Fold these 4 entries.
Entry 1:
Amino acid sequence: MSLKIRNVCKRFENEQKNTLHDINLEIKKGEFVCIVGASGCGKSTLLNLVAGLEKPTSGDIILNGKNIENPGPDRTVMFQEHGLYPWLSVMDNVTFGMKLSGVPKTEREEKAMHYLDMVHLADYKDYPIHQISGGMRQRTALARALTMESEVLLMDEPFSALDKQTSNRLREELQKIWLKTKRTILFITHSVEEAVYLADRVVVLSPQHGGVSNIIPINMERPRHVYDKEFVELRHRILEDVRGEAI
Amino acid sequence: MGVVIFLIILIGAWQGFYWLGVETLGIYKSYAFPSPIGVFERFMELSEDGSLWEALGNSLIRGFTGFVIAVIIGFLLGIVIHQFKFAQKSVKPIILGVQTLPSVCWVPFSILWFGLSAEAILFVVVMGSAFSISISVDNAIQNVPPIYKKAASTMGAGKKQLYWHVIFPAALPELIAGLKQGWSFAWRALMAGEVMTTSIGLGQTLIMGRDLADINQVTLVMLVIVAVGIIIDKLGFSMIEKKILKKRGLLT
Ligand SMILES: Nc1ncnc2c1ncn2[C@@H]1O[C@H](COP(=O)(O)OP(=O)(O)O)[C@@H](O)[C@H]1O
Ligand SMILES: [Mg+2]
């Protein structure tokens, strides 16, 4: 697996300047990369480009040697609003992607159970979406994304709409799952703390020039603790990067 | 319960008004003012000789047939105007315009093309409801939250799968509402068609009542038309609608 973002610019119609400008980034197999930046700096836009939901104005995004043109199951996205289907049960939501690609029913339900176990939702498999909490919905969405076994998993602020406690709990679990499955993850967040907690590398996007203003490797052991001296220092440093850019 | 009492009082008042206005004071002529008792007598007669049921059956079959054809045309047209930008700009405004035509306007064409036949009535029914259905289908698809489609496309959904597994299920409550409105248009159009031709049906029974100066028969048919409308709306569409909304937690 290799994902290369090369000289990517994105300008929306009727905009004066590039929302994203000359982005270069390479993501290795099994890597957990977080992108942070002030609100509106183009984080979601970058993720949508990788997902194939938008097209770059110039530059290339290359996955395994092939240019990305369209959305595809090799780049599943988990969104901030869960995007689950209210007419389906938890189980049917989780198996949805596999059903599209023609995986037989018993096989896809087996696999779904495996991932539902992983997110601690096995007991809720027959529940309708409107009867489970916001945190459980994001767990369901995570299980659904995991079943796709994509080359790279794209996550756009998946825990941002949740209360602090639930969101902290979910990021802990995401980390455990990542340690277990070693997926390649491109994770977007506005929370520097979340980024330092999760990432191998933190990429800071600049709202001024729309480019990458810094890339900070995080070499701390996992699980990390937000009160560790090293954690606090890193968080401060990156926060300054983000703030300095935002002024 | 309160509604039942209200209805009884209403009918009682109507009968009282008839006794006073027609039979006692003679302000109104009996051929121009119906009475509840007269309507009921007419109901008994026409249902005993079976002609009411035959007319009702014919109308229902015709109405459903026309409705089904209108649904098929409406869906296809709705998807086309949703899917193709050019159709959205060119065909949709025309449909929106044509849709404002009262269905009775199609009667001259239908008679010229199909004669005084059952097909002529079907034509009026289809023209009266297909366009409204196509507009509803287009709107229902338009209102599907984009996140549903985005999520599916990043899970590998193609165009056809997107329609079957995401767009139609997501739009279902609105589609049902569109069909409900389409049915009410179809039912009205059916009456417009039936009063113009001689095929047996509720519309023709109504016109026969007029020709025989039998105001009670006219009233009876009007009441039957209303009853069918309400029953199909409440026991058919509204119940399905409620069930779907409940299942999705949109209704408690
Ligand atoms: N489809 C679009 N058309 C025009 N402008 C857009 C579109 N999507 C995003 N933008 C603009 O691009 C900028 C970056 O948006 P976004 O990527 O959502 O930021 P972030 O996710 O970092 O908060 C914003 O100023 C937003 O208004
Ligand atoms: Mg965003």
Entry 2:
Amino acid sequence: MAAASPDFRRRMTRRQWEGRAFHGLCLLAVAVALAMLVLLLVYLARQGLTRVSWEFITSFPSRDPDQAGIKAALLGSIYVVAIAAVVAFTLGVSAAIYLEEYAVRNWRSRIIQVNITNLAGVPSIVYGILGLEIFVRTLGLGRSVLAGGLTMALLVLPIIIIAAQEAIRAVPPSLREGAYALGATRWQAIWHLVLPQAMPGILTGVILAVSRALGETAPLIVMGALTFVPFAPDGPLSRFTVLPIQIFNWTSRPQAGFHEAAAAGIIVLLALLLTMNAAAIVLRNKFQRRPEG
Amino acid sequence: MQQSDAILQTRGLTVYYGSKQAVSDITLDVARHRITAIIGPSGCGKSTLLRCFNRMNDLIPKSRITGQVLFEGRDLYSPTVDPTEIRYQIGMVFQRPNPFPKSIFDNVAFGPRINGFRGDLAELVESSLARAALWAEVKDRLTSSALALSGGQQQRLCIARALAVQPQVILMDEPCSSLDPIATLAIEDLMRELSADYSIVIVTHNMQQAARVSDYTTFLMGIENRGGQIIEYGETRLIFTNPKDERTEAYITGRFG
Ligand SMILES: Nc1ncnc2c1ncn2[C@@H]1O[C@H](COP(=O)(O)OP(=O)(O)O)[C@@H](O)[C@H]1O
Ligand SMILES: [Mg+2]
């Protein structure tokens, strides 16, 4: 092999240095992001870990910082997210099926599509105002946990519709054709082939939606969730609060004890988020393994 | 060919995609319990014609037809005919094997299940796989994924899947074009066996294949912008030994297409 020219070797050295520099920059970016996360977690743990206990989880809020617990907000959050997830999943998947499998592609379906995409970017407080008008006032549900869940369902609906549409679109047309050629109706092809195939993608959308619904605060404040709730929701029309509102309420108090309670509340919120996502991921993996079954 | 010998007939069939003609004025009889091959250059409308026999073209939004397609003398495109019922009697095998992402058993059982089959499903699955010459290879792994099979096995599975709904006709659109020569021969042998009980229409651009397996051959060719038309139709051995039209001769001797 002929020796490389000095020019080539010089350029090669420079290229290698550039490569290393870029690699270093990327590493730095990851490190900064991770460091922030670790810092946050350490801070939270030092402030609040000692306050996290079974008692904290099973007690109602109190004027005494050391007695204050998170039960009402935790149950409120679980109810709101569960209602939102069930309603948005049902509506969202149905809408996606309609748009992908039934709707004729014309200017009307394109307008609908553009609107759905835009809805995903509407500020969440607007959904709060909408929920207040429709659910709280017009439908007369009051400032209830049901109205809160339905408002959240509206908020995450576009996320689920878009994820489900993409998942449905990714199912190869040859599978549908195979089903039709065996005498399947459109509904049978969707139910037996398209949906099971699209389910992992749809559940990814549900994970995103649940995370969003758990963290959102503004729309629920607008539609009138309470900040001090010394009782568990006892039915769909019960008044309620949710974790982020409770946490915000505690951080705005002067006593240090409430700040600890707030940190502990954030830890509970994160744990709940992880649990819900883990459940969705387990479900998704179950669907992805299906072919073997 | 006498009327009673033809299971499928087209009469002046023209298919449009939008305003474009894909095939025009096709009049053709498909013989019962025989293999009919449709050959012709790519894009001349072979698949389009085949997909009229089980109304799969209905699924393409801008397609429409004029003329008639008759199945056992009955107009397939009459408003009283339900296309899903037609597809139950006229099965189809596609160019690329398209097994469902399910177990081998569930693939074959799919058609009977959605059609509300009452009876011994396991028995039906076994006999369908046996007819498709696949039973011996898969009988010990019926519950494993169909996607793990080889291409040739997948295509035989798709044939078994079509057989399981007990159709009278099987339409095959270039069923061997993605298979290796050995798998191709296996499918061709299978077709010869199946032709005792089924009427088969096969689209192929492989002329040796048409010559090897079919009883009748239709040569289709696109003419200007009017889409594919029948240039010649007859017994396969006559078409290949003594073509009447010089375009047929040019095509089968490999001078174009
Ligand atoms: N879905 C469709 N929409 C519009 N045109 C189509 C469609 N499918 C096929 N065509 C056109 O119809 C003609 C015949 O196609 P096809 O039946 O697939 O031919 P072949 O199977 O002989 O290759 C081609 O010109 C093709 O471009
Ligand atoms: Mg074709």
Entry 3:
Amino acid sequence: MTTVLSKNVISVSHLYKEYYTDAGTFSVLKDVNIDIEAGDFVAIMGPSGSGKSTFMNILGCLDKPSKGDYFLDGQTVANLENDALANLRNKTIGFVFQGFNLLARSSLVDNVALPLVYSGVDKDERTARALKLLEKVGLAKHSASRPNQISGGQQQRVAIARALINNPRLILADEPTGNLDTTTSHEIMMLFNELNQDGITVVLVTHEQDIADHASRQIKFVDGSIVEDVRTKISHSQERH
Amino acid sequence: MFSAMFGEAWRAMGANRLRTFLTMLGMVIGVGAVVLMMAIGQGAEDSVKKSISSMGSNLFIVLSGPPSSGGARSASGNAATLNVKDANAMSDLDGVIAVAPLSMGNAQVIYAGNNWNTAILGTSPSFLDIRSWSLLDGYAFGLSDMRSATRVALIGTTTAHSLFGDDVDPIGKTIRIKASPFTIIGILESKGQSLDGRDQDDTIIVPLSTAQRKIFGNQIPGSVRQIMVQAESDKVMGMVEDNLNSLLKQRHNIREGAEQDFSVRNLTALAKSAAETTKTMSLLLGAIASVSLLVGGIGIMNIMLVSVTERTREIGIRMAIGARERNILLQFLLEAVVISIVGCLIGIAIGVGGAILVKNLTEASIIISLNAITLAFTVATAVGVFFGFYPAKKAAKLNPIEALRF
Ligand SMILES: Nc1ncnc2c1ncn2[C@@H]1O[C@H](COP(=O)(O)OP(=O)(O)OP(=O)(O)O)[C@@H](O)[C@H]1O
Ligand SMILES: [Mg+2]
């Protein structure tokens, strides 16, 4: 049993992901090793098909690796039951998607509050907390609207508010600005910056260098492996030392 | 948590109202049919039970004519081959406690310009005991009335109502039956319908001798078409039946193997088989109705499967933000159960409404029991859970990543 310093929110070693199709075995991730400290702000880049999303999904406990170790907050994730994984997704991790993934039939406040339904929080508290977060992302007055009544940038803010509702230690975002124009993208990145300043670890995937420049550390995937790992800024966690 | 999920289920149903309504319709029709059919079936069972208990217990009816000629018809179709002496001989048999010879026919009855056609029954005083038929008012005729053929009559409530209306007390009044005056000395307690659906209260009972002389004039004195016999208990029924047969064979000089001029029927056994027939009927009705419940359930399963497929992405989103398998399972199960319960409630309303309508239109006996409604409700909920479970399980077992890619 490997002990890992809890300073690292994420610690991945010798991680592999393979897909078995009729055409044969696809190795999508090959021997990925990385540690991410608490409070860091990491941007993952790389060409299409290099395995970024696959890696993010494993980090987000949505998918399981074929081989290798993944420690989240010092705890191994590899042999957890589905319910325990659901619990991690609910409380420890906030996931932000490229396509926002809001429930079309629910109001914004209900969308933001939804994770709390699964953590057993009662209705009044759910609504109160969701309204507070909508306010934080600047959408308080739209709380009763449906997702299709607001813009893409606003929808992504709602999705971020939802990711934050359970005070996660880690925000994972797979191309969160992929569907947004440049101005809106930078606004969203400012929001991630703010969260990071509050001490939340942020890992995001992007294709654009200027988006990646908001982060403190840039990692490049090629063909399922990390080929570059550079620190571009001092991370907020390091600043404090 | 549960109320939140209930709200979700409600909203999901509201999102596709026409589809939800159509899915529900299967349940509505199924439950409605079950409730209505059970009301009709139980009503029929109940009216048969009432007729049987009004009939008297451990009864035989001895009919004129050969056994093959069918019960009801032989009474009017054949010559009267039985007589009062046969009846007297029967009453001496072991196990027989009472015997009543019967002579019946229809006749016009008149009171103060009111005309009424009713069934006239001439019999002995023991008839009322055999049928455990008591009087509402007045007194019954006795053996002396038999001997001297007095013109006294007991009147059934239906006949009394038709002749006298509500305000006149029939006791002591004189009516005319086929031109002969009769004094009413007693009013019969109401018996309701007989097994063959006749109104047993539309009748006048007179002493047998009087009936034969004054009403059914063209008969050999003392001969009757029917004799009613009551046995002591259920246990001696077989023995009494054998004894009745051999007694009459002997009295009528019928050789072994020759055709009998009488037949002995066990009325109690006939009644039992009638009761069983209605019970089977009502079970059958219920079973047919239940099939539509089953079809309704399959409809729910079908729509839930479509719904799970359509909402795969939604399921993926919910899982990504922390829904456990059982949360998803419960959500879809709840939807199926809500559909079936709402459908069930509408179905109960329609079934009860239909039953009341049938009752008013046909005057048939209809019983809407709480039991039937509870049963329909329980079965409908169970159908919802049963047919909702597979689609819900399918949703819960989805892989989050694959669901999100959908
Ligand atoms: N379920 C699967 N079955 C087989 N192959 C898969 C499956 N999912 C992903 N892949 C393959 O894995 C590879 C990596 O996919 P992934 O989505 O991680 O790439 P990516 O780096 O996120 O690309 P993009 O920048 O376009 O989003 C691709 O070649 C893809 O075809
Ligand atoms: Mg990707």
Entry 4:
Amino acid sequence: MSERNRIAVVGLGEVHPPQGMSQRMSASEAARLAIADAGLQTSDIDGAIDLRRTGGGGDRASYSDTFTRFGGITNAQFYFTIGRGGALAGLATAAATGFLDRGLAKYVLCVAAVDDWSKAEESKKHGHRGMSHAEKEGYWGKALGDLRAASHHSWMAARHMAEYGTTSEQLGAISVAQRQWACLNPTARMYGRPITIEDHQSSPWVVEPYHRLDCSLISDGAIAFILTTEDRAKDLKQQPIYVSGQGFGEVNDGLWWEKKNLTHMAVPKARDLAFAQAGITLDDIDTAQLYDCFTGEVLLQLEDYGWAEKGGGGKFVASGATAPGGDGIPVNTGGGLLSNWHLGDAVGFAEAVTQLRGHAGERQVKDAKIALSTGHGGELVSPSMCSIHTTTILTAE
Amino acid sequence: MTNETVTPWNKPRPNIDTDSEEFWEGLKRHELLLWTCKECNASYWPKSFCINHDNEPFAANCEWKASSGYGRIYSMNRHEYAFHAGFKEDVPYFYALVELDEGPVISSTIVGEQPTDPIRDIGRRVRIVFEDHPDAGFTLPRWELVSE
Ligand SMILES: [Zn+2]
């Protein structure tokens, strides 16, 4: 591990539900909670980053220009938006690292908010399902029937099934395992609602091969976290959780003709960089928070990181390896986007911090010291979807 | 082959911009245009640059050329929900990502004879069908299964 002054997560705030809260309100409340959690004052925050999704239902500049003013973050010397699809926390952390390393800020507030649930409810009144239905510049498919993330993300699962014989029941095992985790998490949306493989199989098709229970939730809520340097972190209220390694990958190295895109994610470069910085190997990871907009993404990442061989992910998850008490790797221990709630990679990032602090209650992974948190997203220009992959290694020591 | 509909367009409109305008004009003439390199004949879609050469100015060595219109299903799904009200009469529909013989991948629905299964029929041969919507001002590409 390098001798440099590492970056640490020192405050965490999470607001969800209630549903029906505006983004600026929930973002401000999450920020307030994170600042209090760190034992800091609002006036200590001298930089702010707004985690904004792009593509999909994300919109770029709605409340974003007002956040620091609305939230009373008056001492922020810089404030900007960052994000690529669901890849939010990983990018924000890397950006904040630059400012902190250079002495441009002492305490950076990162905040993300979402009101997809409210938007989807509004959309239903017009007879649609889901959020935005306007075709954006350079996009393809809405006029033809490629309408939402499930419309093209399900191609990944379909291609994996055709190529490797993966089954819907195996994807269901991912859904069931994460629901088991959610049932240990009192704040998860699906707490108290266990499911079986049979429930997964009998849940309606949304876009075959995806059943309803292969798809992530639509949520309202916000997450904020505070980053500072290791030397400052030691004096604060909470045990610092260190950002020990980060790496980034792009799957569209080969532009639109890169068909490997459908059965692989841009993991290798991101993983190798992050692992090398943290000085770890795969076996050192105690829990993995893998981006799970759909079950297929979890399957692909389990293979791409190396917990299973390519094509062998189905068997791996069917054995219960990722579930509570499993013998593989505890995955998405808060329930993930499938069963906890959805605010991009910020949900897994927050869960990783919670686990490493030892604050995860009944779902606590014993002696969790090293956590992986991944992000995924990007423009949905069919078929080069969600080309970014982010790897963040968080450590308790 | 033409597949003309007369109902008013009640779905999202496609994005047609300066990069894709010629492609959409080609569809109206029932040509599936691919952005093709004049030097090495490599094909791209959407408009891009040729990876095999220097590009000065950007993408200058390429032009739009008609595709054979044939390819294979690379991946596929079956939509059971109408996410947009305009698709209520269309569900369930098969939506396929097609790998053209020239290389690029383009997605659309399957018209005519329907596949039996979104997974098992991956790999099947298809060809382009042009669906004219003169009132809406565009022609849409669709795919149809062909036997080998
Ligand atoms: Zn060329």
